[in-house]
Automatic annotation (TrEMBL):
One of its GO terms (molecular function) is 16S rRNA (guanine(966)-N(2))-methyltransferase activity. Its EC number is 2.1.1.171. Residues 184-209 are annotated as: Disordered. Keywords: Methyltransferase, Transferase. It comes from Arthrobacter ginsengisoli. This is 16S rRNA (Guanine966-N2)-methyltransferase. Residues 188-209 have a biased composition (Acidic residues).
Length: 209
């Protein structure tokens, strides 16, 4: 059972996707992730995109914490229905429509999206069967839709290889929590200083107190 951890809808129990259709982010990992995003100061008033949204847990958490808008993209019918129910919970708490659900394949959604849409924070938690070349293709399609200074978070198995970042996007941090690994990337900036001070992060505790 997952919940919204903080913000306007903090403590709200989220609806879960039935069966094993998705691989939900645990509350432990989510709490650590959002603690880091709070440190980056990228959530408040952000335009957020949650790809392969599953239950929409990461997107609605962002909405609860003050994101300007959140787009949840999920193709599976049952999962997209759950996304809508969770979106309704947060929209009710916020007293406005913050979260919008899109039932679509991720690639099709990105191909259809036209400028000037630009997202400040993007979550990708693709299913395990999605191979590395396919993920690289999605990241390449995503790149033109990123705002300056955007943060992209890719969640994968800790046994997975680092994603193949497209030209114009680079990893600046990674974190490992048990069987889950989070990769943080941003649009490249020419002549930017090297900010990768935590290449492996093996020293970071895997539990969140």
């Amino acid at each position: 059972m997952s919940r919204i951890i903080s913000g306007a809808a903090g403590g709200t129990t989220l609806v879960s996707v039935p069966g094993s259709l998705t691989r939900p982010t645990t509350d432990r990992v989510k709490e650590a992730l959002f603690s880091r995003l709070d440190a980056f100061e990228v959530i408040a008033e952000a335009r957020v995109l949650d790809l392969y949204a599953g239950s929409g847990s990461l997107g609605v958490e962002s909405a609860s914490r003050g994101a300007q808008s959140v787009d949840l993209v999920e193709f599976d019918g049952k999962a997209s229905e759950v996304c809508q129910r969770n979106a309704d919970l947060v929209n009710t708490a916020a007293r406005r429509k913050v979260v919008t659900v899109h039932r679509s394949k991720v690639e099709s959604f990105l191909e259809r999206t036209l400028a000037p849409v630009r997202w400040d924070l993007v979550f990708l938690d693709p299913p395990y069967p999605l191979d590395e070349p396919a993920l690289a293709g999605v990241l390449a399609k995503l790149l033109p839709h990123l705002a300056e200074g955007a943060v992209v978070v890719v969640e994968r198995s800790s046994r997975s290889h680092e994603p193949a970042w497209p030209d114009g996007m680079e990893r600046f941090a990674e974190r490992k929590y048990g069987e889950t690994k989070l990769w943080f990337a941003e649009p490249s900036v020419e002549d930017a200083p090297d900010t990768d001070t935590d290449a492996t992060d093996q020293a970071e505790p895997e539990s969140v107190s």
